[in-house]
Design a protein that fits this description.
Length: 637
Amino acid sequence: MGVEKILEDAREAVKKTIPSHIEVTEIDFEGPEIVIYTKNLDEFAKNNDLVRQLAQSLRRRVAIRPDPSMLADPSSAEEQIRKIIPDEAKIVNIYFEDDTGEVTIEAISPGLVIGKHGAILNEIKKEIGWAPKVVRAPPIPSKTVSEIRNYLRKVQDERKDFLKKVGRRLMRQRMNDETWLRVTALGGFREVGRSASLLSTRESKVLIDCGVAVSADDNGSTPYLSAPELFPLDTLDAVVITHAHLDHSGLVPVLYKYEYDGPIYCTPPTRDLMSLLQLDFIKVAVGEGKKAPYESSHIRDAVVHCIPLKYGETTDISPDVRLTLQNAGHILGSSIAHFHVGDGLYNIAFTGDIKFEKSWLFNASVNKFPRLETLVIESTYGGYRDMQPSRQEAANQIKEVVRATLARGGKVLVPVFAVGRSQEVMLVLEELMRNHHIHTVPIYLDGMIWEATAIHTAYPEYLNSQLRTQIFQMGENPFLSEIFKRVDSPDMRERICHDPEPCIVLATSGMMNGGPVMEYFKSWCDEPNNTIVFVGFQADGTMGRKIQKGWSDITLNERGKQLSLKMKMDTETVDGFSGHSDRRQLVNYVSTLEPRPERIIIGHGDDHKCSDLASALYKKFGIETRAPLNLETIRLK
């Protein structure tokens, strides 16, 4: 069935379903949705059944939008909003989303924006036509979130054209011959880093993740993007990003550099965090005198092409593939990508990185799906001996390490990834100091930690319910504690490095292959009273892994010169902070998985861990398991 025929059918269905007094001005495809523009938005709001009936008859997602002629100009609309809302509400930001006809109002006191029984919101809607959406202003303003929203506003026409193009490509004529389904390993199999997988059917091609191995040399740092299955890139229907860490998202902008012009599907926090990390990736490359694989313009291209999805929201991403993202529990916005292929032909889920345990930040990963024939799962800690302490044991361990270091007048250096581990360590240290379990000393945050934390507060719905309650109902925001000090200049970093007083520093990069953490390390490593605490995975070949292994003579390359250091500071590893499931949790995940799959494919782990976990799952559950090499293809159907 052609695009025009589907649109014609949509118009007929709308005519039959919608009462004649409701005026529909336009019907079109925008991304995965059929969008109906109307001058009677209130009528749809009064009758939710209309939208449900339309979605059922069209078998597609349906969005109802106000006709553009009903919307006031954004600048005059903002003026009206500020006149109507009382000053006590303390408006922080107002931004208009042209593709949905909504205006989001961020305020310190959202209740005062809504008014009694929604009276103020109704008045706003009546005056400006835009549908108002009220959110509590994030406690820490995020530059990244603000810049992305402003940029999307500037490119609204370009984005609308793009969404229409995606919609038409989704509705293309389907082929009627043989159906099949394959997965090709393009990176991150029998290794950690450069994650990328290709899901191929007779109809379509979907790339899942496109990462970079930051610690590898140039030859092994990128996925096999030139593989014949994937190339040329303009044959791809969609890219799905499970989460923002660079080993899963670091090369996404390269796709736009080399002619890809299609959509990226991910959660809203993933879009914002990966933009932050990709910009930093360029900055670090330039700082090390290397050529970055892409420019900031390619990151902006990726932002324009993002179609954000909430957890549990199902959407068509190609003529025969539907996608649902579910919580993975790893970092903010991390997701398990579940694909429903064909009309009931096959179901496959890619876990990305998962944490099957409730953490200080997130709920445990989802492990219940409507249908599931194949699971592709990570194995970072899938080895036989990879057992991690619980979160509580990790908190006790870091308490003892910090207490002992501060008691002897030393300093604590914690190399962290900006996203995920740093926020968990912040929560634990804040609670320990608030309850007087360790001495109160300044905790300095260096690198992108502050901005990444701000993005966490912009998306409270992705945090676990306990933390949301603490922040928004009890008014206790641990991230805003006075103990946290943002390092905002090289001069401040220099002062901290030479300050004799005890303190704690959380600094990026987490594997010590560059970043501000190295400045503190150079200043403090020869003092035995100080301690370095590793709370995240240290890949082979990184400086972090070398220190973890006990190297005492460290050589760094500083501006082309060799710098020799003696390692005398205490070295500790606290494993319980990991955002990855350990061996026991991975086995429990499969054990409680509903439904139980026919096949499990293992990736994202060192060679022996992939094969070890594959063997163990087969023996325990009798499920077919595979641990493919990069460039292997497995036919599933």
